[in-house]
Amino acid sequence: MREVGIIGVGHTKFGNLGRVTSRELITAAALEALEMSSLSKDDIDAVYAGLLSPDIFEHQMHAAPGIPDYLGMKNTPSTRLEAACASGGLSVMHGIIGVASGLYDHVLSVGAEKMTNLPTSHVTEALAMCADDIYEVAPGITFPGAFAMMARRHEHEFGTTPEMRAAVAVKNHKHAMENELAQFHKEITIEKAMNSLMIADPLTLYDCSPITDGAAAVVIVPWEVAKHHDGPKVKVKAFAQASDTMSLHDRPDLTGFMTTKIAARTAFERAGLTPKDIDFLEVHDCFTIAEIMAIEDMGFYEKGEGGKAALNGETYRDGRLPVNVSGGLKAKGHPIGATGVSQVVEVFKQLSGLAHERQLDDVTYGMTQNLGGSGSTIVCHILERGD
Amino acid sequence: MREVGIIGVGHTKFGNLGRVTSRELITAAALEALEMSSLSKDDIDAVYAGLLSPDIFEHQMHAAPGIPDYLGMKNTPSTRLEAACASGGLSVMHGIIGVASGLYDHVLSVGAEKMTNLPTSHVTEALAMCADDIYEVAPGITFPGAFAMMARRHEHEFGTTPEMRAAVAVKNHKHAMENELAQFHKEITIEKAMNSLMIADPLTLYDCSPITDGAAAVVIVPWEVAKHHDGPKVKVKAFAQASDTMSLHDRPDLTGFMTTKIAARTAFERAGLTPKDIDFLEVHDCFTIAEIMAIEDMGFYEKGEGGKAALNGETYRDGRLPVNVSGGLKAKGHPIGATGVSQVVEVFKQLSGLAHERQLDDVTYGMTQNLGGSGSTIVCHILERGD
Description:
Two copies of one chain form a homodimer. In chain A, 38% of the residues lie in helices and 18% in strands. The first copy, chain A, has helices at residues 22-37, 54-58, 66-71, 87-100, 120-128, 133-137, 143-158, 162-176, 190-194, 223-226, 258-271, 288-297, 307-311, 328-332, 336-352; strands spanning 4-11, 46-50, 78-82, 107-113, 198-200, 203-204, 214-222, 234-243, 280-282, 365-372, 377-385. In chain A, strand 5 (198-200) and strand 6 (203-204) form a beta hairpin. The first copy, chain A, is globular and about 55 Å long. Strand 3 of chain A pairs antiparallel with strand 3 of chain B, so a sheet runs across the interface.
């Protein structure tokens, strides 16, 4: 397969965006990405779209052809991918495969969700369907409950504390202060996080990511084209995907995800890199415990040591391994299908010097981890600075 | 990209299958395909799954990881694709891309739907969501209405008659008599079809495909592997995909699909073939008028001449261009996500001499056309006999 690069990114504001459709949000993000890439809509050979459930949220299935339709790209193949909260990661990955294979020269990969139309209880029920319906959803589990069990087990095995989880939320809220597209611009304290509403013991409100509308887009081209592009460009070093059992009871361990371990290891092997080479991460902090497990499972911390990272300041923007400088799902927001694409957009911006107030210094490699369900799908990407 | 072949297929009975999940149906079809391929589950590098809406039909989103889970393939990447009734075609196509690119050596592409759980009115409403929600669904259109408008316009422009459409239903019901996996084993007459319940004027009950449960699976490998396989094998000559506007009012013509024309033309170009080279077809007869439009738009009949094909006997199993020898969606049944895979399974069986009573003589090339929504997605495949 040939080498691949990204030459354009787009990203809407994340938040409660009112009366707008995911198709319109995608159009806005895609036009921004196309403008940066200097490509026209007619240059695009295929569209991939990560969308969790436009049927449930917007009464619109078969949403993918609506994207080239609204963009005025008549007849461009357009494909929807769904893997719960990892739908966006798979959209980017399949855009990369399309170009790397030689099938397409220019692919637009997008992701979006319009979630705030529905009452919170409906959203929670819709999201719960991404767990195993027979063994988990029917008996009554929702994702806060599933991740609460993981948090409890992580506490039991490794002594991880509520304060450590709260520190992840404090860090990501602080990071989001410098991301104008983030849903929240509000600093919080460890005390405030720990004393917030109990959602699913031991997880409180500030351990949980919010309900969000938004979209993100990237333009993927062969690296031979990207490297001559007169504008920002980033090289795709590796992607990887892994699946696991739907039910938690079928897994030997609740303190981490085998999928994250496999996807990260595969990505490192394909890239010829190790965790030591990676300068910063965007990981899937749908709950604070998920960020802690991610940085452990990806190999950046020993198992059980991840809880100390945010508390010690190591994963802040000025720490030794910045994690979720965008604000993460926790504070940037989590429009399901958009999240995996948004992570790649943030890594692109950091590697291209386009991250404004939150710009990291001297970064060469950034990595993403995008999680679906209770970790039944994981998608990782490693990107390299292109200039 | 490297050449690709298929060395195993599986297919459940289609019909009202009672208390069973799509995951279980897929497991059955996949095990049959794996057995034919002589590969073990551990050889499979990736799974692709076409499923329209396991969320609405079965309260299960994020269904893809459940497939390797049930098959005991721990951690194999598994990806769901949704493009309305073309979801299965995209599952096969992305399996082919995965192997052709060199990324994977062995891919399992599956498709399924479990639809008979819901009342017919709920299914009709769910399917309607595959049209444009804003411009078509909200004002009240469902697919019988959309295809009725196409049928009316085809009558107006070309003099296509209700008898010609009925002849498609009669033919496909006759074909299904020799397919033990088909939903219906019941011959009908033109009179019976024309006098059946009016669904959406001018379409009667027998112009419409049924609501069906079922699954199908194929095993895709490099042609270099397939050609040495001690068992049935078929070569993938080409695939192609096209999209169109969601709304019918944005199209210049209602008597055919630009997407079918583009996808078929692209597939012929990639295969280095013309319609004259193709021995038989499996096309998307969700409504009888759709089969007529398909054989025109694919280039097998002049525009306006397709209506005569079944009436003249030309598209029967013993005719000059057999179409839907499996029974088609009309009589084999139409479990949405399974259909595109099922078409490829039928072409494989015909090219491998495995079609039992309905076996065609001396066939070298077979072609599929799989349609999503009101033609907003089309996927075509051309397969070549491999022995």
